[in-house]
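haha ok so turns out i had the wrong file open the whole time. this is the CORRECT one, sorry everyone. sequence first:
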Amino acid sequence: MKINPLLENSAHWQTYPSDDRFSYPIGYSGALIGHDGNGHIDLVYRWEAGKYCHFHRHLCEVRSTVIQGSLEVATFENGVEVSSTVRETGSYSHMPEGDIHMERGGPEGATVIFNLYAPDGRLTDMLDEQGNTLKTLTIESVLKQFAS
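then structure:
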């Protein structure tokens, strides 16, 4: 999938490759757009076609817009998938704190802008396939990650 040249050339992309700890194919990358030091952070992520990001739980309010391709989102409660939707280019979403889900790139992948508001600095918990927390991502850890 081609990405907007403005994002491609100006962003420092971090790639998240497949991981033997998970049974699903992982293939996505992300870039920091900006942050204000007051709990707001903006990121862009892109998914390879048919590949997932890590299973995770939001610890803050998240708004997102699909800017290219399509994104399949499966939401879980108590370890059981309760809904699945496909978000097409142009779709906007507001996800509440506590939302547990997986996202997968559609047939041509996906590119999505995320606007997060985390007054306490906590963004997401990366989960194993049983829903146990493997690590917590914070604004501080994300800023360090993209600085390297």
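DSSP finds two helices and ten strands in the chain.
again sry for the mixup
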